[in-house]
Design goal:
Elements (H helix, E strand, L loop, with lengths): L3 E3 L6 H9 L6 E3 L7 E8 L5 E9 L16 E8 L4 E2 L6 E2 L4 H14 L8 H19 L8 E7 L2 E10 L2 E7 L3 E8 L8 E3 L8
Antiparallel strand pairs: 1-3, 2-12, 3-4, 4-5, 5-11, 6-7, 8-9, 9-10, 10-11
Length: about 210
């Protein structure tokens, strides 16, 4: 995807919502069955500034997995919403944006989980190399959703069963599927993916 992730919302939650409010598509989060904390994370924009995707968090704020104190007790799920779009030119006419697919959501979810997963014994340079390698692996896995690393999981989206591609990793789980006009990815740990449901976010204030 030809987008760049820009963290919205520093320093206030109200400012965070600005990026989400610019999106021409609906945002998704966990449905009302989840009663824990919710928060906005970041949006990804194209070169012309248009919002292409973003993430919402649920549960405990995730920490780096190599920080052994408490990570085994973490319970969180992050939902990634990606605008479903064909190949198209950028708003300024200077380039082309790739089409978005379920694989786009799977890659964003897989790479998102990596951000919170550091091997404990790596120095900074080796850690960067590890992240590059793992990100490439996440991309390759997302490009082969029918491969043996993925299984199928049916979860409700706005109350309607939807088939998701699902895989588990040593540090959590990743899934991806499609809804009305968007692709949905998710990742987490400590919370079972099998009991989740998704719905459109009607009020971003619930995530402030």
């Amino acid at each position: 995807m030809e987008t760049t992730s820009r963290v919205e919302g520093v320093p206030t939650a109200r400012r965070t919502a600005e990026g989400y409010l610019r999106a021409p598509f609906a945002w998704y989060g966990l449905d009302e069955a989840f009663t824990g904390p919710r928060w906005l994370m970041q949006v990804g924009t194209a070169a012309d500034g248009s919002v292409q995707h973003g993430s919402t968090g649920h549960g405990d704020a995730p920490s780096i997995k190599s920080d052994a104190s408490g990570t085994e007790k973490e319970r969180f799920a992050v939902v990634v919403t990606v605008a479903a779009s064909p190949v198209r030119r950028t708003g300024d006419g200077t380039g082309v944006l790739d089409a978005t697919t379920v694989s786009s959501a799977a890659w964003l979810a897989g790479s998102g989980l990596l951000v919170h997963t550091w091997p404990a014994s790596l120095d900074h340079m080796t850690r960067d190399n590890w992240l590059d390698q793992q990100t490439e692996t996440a991309f390759e896995l997302a490009d082969d959703l029918e491969g043996p690393d993925w299984s199928s999981l049916s979860l409700p989206v706005d109350g309607v069963p939807v088939t998701f591609h699902y895989r588990e990793t040593e540090s959590g789980w990743v899934l991806a599927g499609s809804a009305d006009g968007v692709h949905i990815g998710a990742y987490g740990r400590g919370m079972s993916a099998y009991g989740l449901g998704f719905s459109q976010i009607e009020d971003l204030d619930a995530y402030a």
